[in-house]
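Hey everyone, long-time lurker, first post.

I ran two proteins through the pipeline my lab uses and got sequence/structure pairs for each. Pasting them in order. The first:
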Amino acid sequence: MTTLLIIFAKEPVAGQVKTRFSPPLSLKEAAELYLCFLKDILEEMGRWPELHLALAYSPPEARSFFQGLAPPATRLFPQEGDDLGTRMARAFDWGFAAGFEVVLLRGSDTPDLPGALLLQAREVLAAGQAEVALGPSPDGGYYLVGLKAPQPELFRGQTWSTAAVLEETLGRAQRLSLRVHLIPSWPDLDTYDDLLAFLTRPHPIPLPGWRSDLMARKLLSQEGNLASPKD
């Protein structure tokens, strides 16, 4: 069953991404670290031949940047819509219109997320065991959503960026009579505390997140907030 993985990504411009890493990082440093997130994600997701890759990018004029960043076979299209729910629903519409039977959508806040977890979601959906697959985050949101068909009502009217996003989504799925499968939880990196927790987990080359680990250690060491980077 053909599967498309859509990665939601922003152009790493200072002041536009990962602003809650600042302080202690500068806005420019936070953007440099987010670029490492993107590189780590594309490398790990590209290791799995079961997944066709697409980047849904923002802002619309960032296409040339992402063309230079993404692997050659990656499909590119801009995010469209005034809120996150609309952008997600339209991304799923794009994926299904392109002929894929399963569409997964993930964010770019989890640079060390292993691709094997996404394959779990793919397999459950492909086997018809659920209509929706979700990857919970400890902060109450989710890092992944997968579908077998467009479900625009699942995203309409949702309140985003709160600790109740997952709970509200599960309730909405129940009202829509959609079976949901939860894959294992994985933490987002949104705040400085999240970044410190990330650095307590080992990320040796070539494990997912190795670039982000090295860059975070380098930047935090420069700011005097962390011991020197590992050798």
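...and the second, right after it:
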Amino acid sequence: MRITCDQHARDNISMPHRREIHAWYTKASWQRRRRHQLQTEPLCRIYLEAGRVVPATVADHIESHRGDYNAFRLGQLRSLCAECHNALGDANKPRAPVRADGTPF
């Protein structure tokens, strides 16, 4: 399921990033990279480190890209479940909340 910026506007959902940054997540190149990350690391890294097996749905940038397109495209990723992604602390703020399937709100 792909969410576009137009869908957010139609559904009156606020975007956590500027519109142009949010659009990066709808590009085919990101969708391929996300899919590859989740195939390579299919379990939530945080839960796995705690000894629990939970499927991952989010390809999370380990270091925030802070609006830098090169960091967005090339930054190191980790796989997380939506719950862990949304619960991360201030070091990863602003945190873009995601649905259980990994798509942005």
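Reply from user beta_strand_b:
Welcome! Quick read of the second one: The radius of gyration is 13 Å. Helices lie at 5-10, 19-24, 28-40, 45-49, 69-74, 82-87.
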